[in-house]
Design brief:
- With 355 residues, the protein is α/β, with parallel strands linked by helices.
- Helices cover 40% and strands 16% of the residues.
- The chain has 14 helices and twelve strands.
- Strands 2-8-7-6-5-3-4 form a seven-stranded mixed beta sheet, sandwiched between helices.
- It binds pyridoxal-5'-phosphate.
Length: 355
């Protein structure tokens, strides 16, 4: 999946999880005030949780080591064993959390197809079934991903979320937002984080992707649901001690790395424009809304893994996101020079497919 480097890597667009803490972030980590977070006594963790909850318009927050755990805690809260969640077929919770919902919580899953991961209310609404008693599986939760990773960084429209909420709320079906990259959606759309957040019962956000922290996510929700999530976090073995050191990186990122995401978005858009010109049809630049460019390289004669290997040989890393797709992700550690280099190398390879 991830080709080994054969040339010095000059543009690493494999993932926005690759970022290394900046000197300022490291300083903030070193000087963080800490305490035992299992006892709720780490002031820096408490500050981060409160800040993220307030930003997202929720009562309380819980620091977790990963976005996957934040999602899984939410699923556990909303869905009882034997019930189901519904999400789109490329959502992280169903595609990349290694069956955790089934393994840990006894949850079954059904999915809808979504072009570019874009939420069309007809998708979830066509699947919902409640009150189906002893005959069929009851739907307890709809999960929405924003931005959509494998959809190519797609920003979900508020109107579609509202339509889903209007249908689920009267049925008692909960809504969870996998907002690993909600920061990108906020910066790209100008919509306040709380406008997204308040439409959901729970929201998970990651500090370790575009924001550049080495570790950490936060799950937000009502005070009661976060108190319950706290118990499950400990039960899963993820009660942590002096992790103010890590929370400090998250607080630093909120202060310094949110607005700069616009720069990643701009670079991604410019790359998409250049590549669409070099190889018409591989991407529609109008669909590139945030920091991710997903190229459809099959029609050009490339396979996803083939192109990603050829790129590594030229010092560019990207992710083969399927047999004929390659994903490029901009982040804090991809500067203007790396962007220019990637635009050039990828454009050239796209225009000259393998024999
Ligand atoms: C959309 C989305 N949700 C959740 C996660 C999980 O985050 P983590 O790798 O911290 O478990 C990711 C990771 O890439 C993601 O892209």
């Amino acid at each position: 999946m991830t080709p080994a480097a054969s040339a010095p890597i000059r543009a690493d667009l494999l993932s926005d999880t690759l970022t290394r803490p900046t000197p300022g972030m490291r300083e903030a980590m070193v000087s963080a005030e800490v305490g035992d977070d299992v006892f709720g006594e780490d002031p820096t963790v408490l500050a981060l949780q409160e800040r993220v909850a307030a930003l997202l318009g929720h009562e309380a927050g819980l620091f977790t080591p990963t976005g996957s755990l934040a999602n899984q805690l939410a699923l556990r809260l909303h869905v009882r064993p034997g019930e189901e969640l519904v999400c789109d077929s490329l959502a992280h919770v169903v595609r990349a959390e290694l069956g955790a919902a089934a393994v840990f919580s006894g949850i079954s899953t059904r999915t809808w197809s979504a072009e570019r991961g874009l939420l069309d209310p007809g998708g979830p609404l066509g699947l919902l079934q409640t009150g189906v008693g002893p005959y069929q599986v009851c739907t307890s939760l709809v999960v929405v991903e924003n931005t959509h990773n494998f959809g190519g960084g797609t920003v979900q429209p508020l109107g579609a979320i509202d339509a889903v909420r209007a249908a689920t709320q009267p049925l008692g079906v909960a809504l969870h937002l996998d907002g690993a990259r909600l920061w990108n959606a906020h910066v790209a759309s100008g919509i306040p984080l709380a406008e997204y957040g308040r439409r959901f019962d729970t929201v998970s956000v990651c500090l370790s992707k575009g924001l550049g922290a080495p570790v950490g996510s936060v799950l937000v929700g009502s005070a009661d649901s976060i108190a319950a999530a706290r118990i499950w976090r400990k039960r899963y073995g993820a009660g942590m001690r002096q992790v103010g050191i890590l929370a400090a990186a998250g607080l630093y990122a909120l202060d310094h790395h949110v607005e700069r995401l616009a720069q990643d978005h701009d670079r991604a858009r410019r790359a998409a424009l250049a590549w669409a010109q070099a190889a018409p049809g591989c991407v529609d630049p109008a669909t590139v809304q945030t920091n991710i460019v997903m190229l459809d390289v099959g029609p050009l004669g490339w396979t996803g893994p083939g192109l990603s290997e050829a790129l590594v040989a030229e010092g560019v890393r990207a992710y083969a996101a399927g047999p004929s797709r390659v994903r490029f992700v901009w982040h804090l550690d991809v500067d203007e020079a790396a962007t220019a280099y990637a635009i050039d190398v990828v454009g050239r390879l796209l225009a000259t497919p393998p024999a």
